[in-house]
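Pilot study result, target chain (715 residues):
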Amino acid sequence: MTLPRFNAAEMVFSAKCFAAAMLAMAVASLAGLPRPFWALMTAYIVANPLAGAVRSKAVFRLAGTLLGCAAALLLVPALVDVPELLTLALALWVALCLFVSLLDRTPRSYLFMLAGYSAALIGFPAVGAPLGIFETASARVEEIAIGIVCGTLVHSLVLPVSLRPTLVGLMDRTLADAGAWLRGMVQPAAATADGAAGRQAARRKLAGDISQLRVMATHVPFDTSHLKWTASAIRALQHEVAALTPFASAVDDRLQALRDAEGRLPADVEQAVGGVLARLADSGRAAPGTPAAPLSDADLAGLRAAARAVADAPPPQADAWTRALRIGLAVRLEELIDAWQACVQLRQRIDAGLAGHPSELPADGPAAPAARDVLHRDVGMAAWSALAAALAICLCSAFWILTGWPGGAAMAMMAAVFCSFFAGMDDPAPSIYSFLKALLMSLPLGALYVLVLMPLVVDLPTLALVCAPAFLVLGCYLARPATFMKAMALLLSGVIGTLSLYDTGQADFAGFANAMVGQVLGVAAAAVVTALVRSVSAGWGARRIQRTTWRELGRPLRQADAAQARLHAARVLDRIGLLAPRIAQAGGTVDGVSADDALVDLRIGTDLHALRRDAALLPGGLGPDILARVARLFREHPAQRTTGQAAQDQPALAERIDEALRALLPGGAAADAGPGPEADADRRRTLAALVGLRRNLYPARPWPAAPLATQEARA
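Predicted structure:
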């Protein structure tokens, strides 16, 4: 038999959890509260290896408990004489809170989810004694508050583990992944299948890094180090990295288009663009301990000049499409330079904040949007999950009411908890079944404590001595993400859940059996209802996420500016981060959906915003016509086809884009309209947007072979 091996960090974390739990138990007992084991349980629920996460979770849990308590105080006294209506009211409250929680998608969502099932945990046991609901609810709040305070104090004061190493490492990895993508664009291997696969992997990693960084940053204001003073800079960095992604993706695509057009990357392009990308990647934070180094004004001017040279010096034999590709490449490369510089400057500002120096953002800089504006939200699935939770609670309550079984309250409570806890998954049923198996495995351990060990306990030191073996070992497993859920099931349901029977005077075999059967049936009901009503496949979820982007692209743009384009980029990049694991879970392929197709949609959104800003530069209403045709294409997008496949049914759109490109190229109808460098920059930006649309919608369509004069004569 191999004994488990725990590292020092896991053992320290487990010891702190145990100390916080015993402290909470002691305080609750001395305060004379009726159920001190709730305080002990709460100390474990809020535990996290990172002190900042403990503090944020503590705040969210306390607020959620207060809100759930208020709901129970309003509903139970008013409806206790009509159990059917009380059941429905509590079920609807849980459903409402779960719906709001699923739309949040940050750690703050815990507040709303807890507000839902806290009302069920307080309300259902109070049905038999409604006159004492206020005392019961206030006692639950006090017990939970004691557990929260004790857990927060211990994890914050005793060897606190800062979020700083984890979050700083994630930021550095994000920039490193972006730098690896830039370096791979012009390397010779990039034209091979292995090089393309490497770039795809870097893009997927970058999307996942950004989504993870955005979620983790919620804990930053609660951290114990100087990291909390850099919260605004960290939010801005997330947004800037998301904003540079469509520019980097467009540069990558234009380079590939030049390879396709000429058989290889032109030497001058390879040298100029390769030098720019390498210099950008070198200015980032390449490894921990290596400081970020923003480019000087002279360096920036040189890089921009190198980018413009790609467009200004095409070879004499270059056709119109090659010239357009070069201009589009140059424009996107300049935008990439500016976006990368902003990221590196923010990374340097974060370093300054970590060192204790001011890290406020400049007042004239772009404000980072709130998470609610950029994180993907699926209102339909949130509503469906809420409906499944309400249905499971109602079924369990109906069984309880019809049978009059005393353990029926535990069924409804467990259904509320488990339908809520796993609702963010595409298919929650396997995870609920896994928790159910761990709960069944914990029954012998729970019986040992309730029927054998606890009768020997006479005071708090004896309780600590009896609990220490199981609590300390399971606490080490709580520190491991791979074993967290199973350890939580064994500890909370198997040990602490059964110990709480002493609070209610039911610590005998009959009470233990009733409580365990109620818990098992409640978890099983949640699993069955979820499997029948709510579960979907990973492929179905991926297609639904992709269709959200298509619907967004199918809405006509009523306003378009740089800020709107950045918001769109951040939203689509978050969806790419959600798509990648689902596609992998589905076996690597889903009909009509891939992470690379999502990048195509990301670039299209950026191009549409740019074209919308400068549509007036195109003659004959070409700009509004192209925008309207693209919107119609995405509104009618077939679910099982990629964007490029769907566009093949719209050849007229390709002809209109070609017409607009000819008008903007040198010698075209709109090429010389509006003198001055600012007008020239607008024309180049518009031409880059049209090049992007043509490449993304019609990647295999050749440029019309007829000379420009012939084309104009035909028109």
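One observation from the pilot: The CA atoms of residues 298 and 304 lie 10 Å apart. A full batch analysis is planned for the follow-on phase.
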